[in-house]
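Please check our next protein.
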Amino acid sequence: MLKPRKKTREVKVRDIGIGGNNPVRVQSMTSTSTVDIDATLRQIEELSNADCELIRIAIPDRRSLEAFREIRKQTDVPLIADIHFNYRLAIGALEAGADKIRINPGNIGDKKKVLEIIESLKQNKKAVRIGVNSGSLEIDLIDKYHGVTSQGLVESAIRWVNYFTENGFEDIVVSIKSSSVIQTIEANLELSSKIQFPIHIGVTEAGPLLPGTVKSAIALGTLLLQGVGDTIRVSLTEDPVKEVEVAWEILKSLGIRANGPLIISCPTCARTRIDLVSLVKKVEEKLKSIKYPIKVAIMGCEVNGPGEAREADIGIAAEPGKGVIFKKGKIIKRVKEEEILEVLMEEINNMVEGG
């Protein structure tokens, strides 16, 4: 059962609100070399067109920082600067126009350097994500808990949240990420019980498309069902647009948020009357441009539809040489097999235009 999302403090990133009464936000990260300004801008546009709301860019060195400065001038998309190790790059990114920075304070160095970042955040009126990661947990916490544990990850996050708030800064988003699904779930559930700041959730180093999608769906789905998570990122060794698509599918599947149609289709069996796999792919492609949140069912025989697919707003069920078009489980017309795609899309477009 889906629990109400925990109410957290609102944090603004450019014109996007995180936490508070805002919806769960979808974000991703560029995979281009940041110094390749044109390629990075192209990917930002691709991600934005895929409904990615927040885009993170790695800034590993001074050249990347200067490139980021130029990138910032050429796009209005909310940009998050991803910083590790060098506190000067964090300050430079804020001065270059980053709407938010992501740091792991544990690898920045001593607290004086983190304090300088806090002062820059105040001056520039920007937000920070304190990102704790299983691969870079502080040594004292590894020793205390005899390894990398969910308890140690939570203690690290709380430690740094307290340091920021004690120094007068509260525009904070927090994340705890692990490559372990179980550890990610345990740590974020515990973290949520202890803070009022927005939580960004994801599985780090999730892997290629299939295993990464499975890990992310389990971890993020479990947390979202428990009301935990204000922004999400699906990490895949893939085109980052795929990350965004998977993230939206997770939200749609839980009924949390939709950016377009949800397709349901049967897995096919000996009863399948048509080339369903091909039809599903064609419908999926045609629906990409539609942002209206409707449920579309594509069923291979009369067993699965319209009866089992009566929850769908619209759909088809195949019969020998023809297809049955139905809305909310009621048959509205029968068409020849070769007309199924055209007629289905006509009906969908009519529904979209009619609101």
Q: What stands out?
A: The first helix runs from residue 37 to 49. The chain has eleven helices and 15 strands. The longest strand covers residues 127-133. The mean pLDDT is 95.
